[in-house]
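FORM 7B: Structural annotation worksheet

SECTION A. Query
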Amino acid sequence: MNELKNKIVIINSTELNNEAHENMYTFGISERDIKDWGTESINQFIIECRDLYLSKKPNIPMIFYSWFDNQAGQLRISMVSSSHNKLPFGSRIQECELGEMLDNIYGTEDISFFKKRKLKVWCTEI
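SECTION B. Predicted structure
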């Protein structure tokens, strides 16, 4: 977390994709890491990331969001201005609770995810 704290600089842009990309950080997570860390550790890490983003953001309403990229094996976090009124995904997404997103990481999600082909994204306004 200290490394992220020293690196992170939050930008605000009128261009949604640029803002999302510049504010994004990725964390590679192997299957072994998933087993070793457990749900509670990853949950706490994401909450700490959210709190860090909150402390670094400009004085405007923003949306912090997180998702797990199954293909890349990465936990991803980013933040965009609330004024965009949407998240920057080209694919279909399903906004969900943090626990549901963690179910996606741990493979305990509802099979309907695969039928609907929606990426589960946890987001919160900060």
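SECTION C. Observations
The first strand starts at residue 25 and ends at 28. The radius of gyration is 14 Å.

SECTION D. Sign-off
Analyst initials: ____
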